[in-house]
Q: What sequence folds into this?
């Protein structure tokens, strides 16, 4: 079947998708997209990717966007070809997902800023902003410190031949589940939402961020980034909320609400929209929750310029959602899935701020938000908040 990659050479996300295709030794056709004439914003291209970005991947009549959605599909659809890129074992795969989340949430935002300042700006005749470079070099340095420590434990983030891969005992799904977290933390609430959708009993261990309990040596041993939540299930320990939700969805596939489809193509589409949440919705909505909710809570002053800037970034994302929700009831397809669930913490906070008007202005987005926010599992999560 013909494989096609819509691309512009030099784009990091295109190179990410190409790297996976080449690791899998797959023949594919390049379809160049002419950025000079803004071909990526034409109706024909927007029908392939409503975000108007490359890469887009076609496997016959199956179409995907978001580079990490593409690499994951390629790795899973062509498991027996070329390099093995993902583990089938549930727990090993969970550890891999956790480090993939670290790349998406921590390495990419900092390294992309630096590639823009130090590589792309000079190419376009623009001047690098040294203050931004210094700020993001420091942030990247912190991530690379964690990588340095991790790479002392294994050759790659998780390598088959490494002796340090835990030989996971066959944890019974009935074993106690622990979640170290903080009430009100969006990431903690995201993990809890998945656990409650699955109707699971959780031993919740509160972590006091106010006294920096998350930076204690004991906590850093569980999550070197010193952040909540951390999940424990038998000998498996995970951080990064979206890695936790994915493990919970897969380990308890047949319990409670189904959160990920077992059909490979449907699950690939859900992954695409999970990536859209992580790469587009989360960066804008997290800035807005910080300015409009957390800052006032901590006695700090909201910066209205930042609010205006990030409202402008959130709007086109919500426009894409509005259109998507004309095609199906939920973002990932016709049923509720992790693609919707991952939005809950920030959407819930924003509904109590002036940003609610951006949701209200889009009827389908507004109906979708009310629908997902009224789920009993989410009500159970928010009932933990002080009254
Ligand atoms: N990408 C991470 C983000 C985790 C995160 O930002 N946690 C916050 C609370 S919502 C935290 O622990 N902050 C304390 C800190 O960074 O020192 C995830 O999804 O788990």
A:
């Amino acid at each position: 079947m013909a494989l096609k990659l819509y691309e512009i050479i030099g784009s990091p996300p295109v190179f990410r998708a190409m790297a996976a295709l080449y690791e899998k030794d797959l023949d594919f056709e390049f379809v160049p997209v002419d950025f000079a004439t803004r071909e990526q914003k034409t109706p024909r291209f927007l029908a392939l990717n409503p975000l108007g970005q490359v890469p887009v991947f076609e496997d016959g009549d199956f179409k995907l966007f978001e580079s990490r959605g593409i690499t994951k599909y390629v790795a899973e659809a062509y498991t027996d070809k070329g390099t093995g890129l993902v583990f089938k074992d549930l727990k090993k795969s969970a550890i891999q997902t956790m480090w993939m989340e670290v790349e998406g949430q921590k390495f990419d935002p900092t390294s992309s800023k630096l590639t823009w300042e130090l590589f792309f700006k000079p190419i376009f005749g623009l001047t690098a902003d040294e203050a931004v470079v210094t700020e993001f070099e420091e942030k990247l340095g912190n991530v690379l410190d964690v990588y340095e420590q991790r790479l002392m434990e294994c050759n790659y983030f998780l390598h088959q031949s490494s002796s340090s891969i835990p030989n996971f005992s066959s944890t019974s799904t009935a074993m106690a589940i622990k979640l170290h977290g903080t009430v009100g933390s969006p990431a903690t609430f995201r993990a809890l939402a998945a656990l409650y959708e699955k109707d699971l009993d959780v031993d919740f261990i509160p972590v006091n961020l106010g006294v920096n309990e998350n930076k204690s040596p004991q906590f850093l041993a569980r999550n070197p980034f010193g952040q909540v939540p951390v999940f424990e299930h038998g000998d498996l320990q995970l951080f990064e909320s979206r890695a936790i939700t994915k493990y919970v969805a897969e380990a308890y596939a047949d319990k409670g609400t189904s959160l990920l489809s077992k059909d490979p193509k449907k699950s690939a589409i859900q992954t695409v929209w999970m990536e859209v949440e992580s790469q587009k919705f989360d960066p804008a909505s997290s800035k807005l929750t910080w300015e409009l909710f957390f800052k006032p809570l901590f006695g700090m002053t909201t910066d209205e310029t930042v609010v205006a800037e990030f409202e402008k970034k959130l709007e086109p994302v919500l426009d894409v959602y509005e259109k998507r929700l004309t095609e199906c009831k939920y973002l990932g397809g016709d049923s509720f899935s992790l693609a919707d669930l991952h939005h809950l913490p920030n959407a819930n906070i924003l509904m109590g701020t002036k940003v609610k008007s951006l949701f209200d202005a889009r009827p389908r987005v507004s109906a979708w938000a009310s629908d997902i926010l009224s789920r009993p599992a989410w009500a159970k999560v928010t009932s933990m908040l002080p009254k």
About this structure: Residues 105, 185-187, 209, 214, 226-228, 240-242 surround glutathione (CB under 6 Å). The CA atoms of residues 184 and 385 lie 6 Å apart.
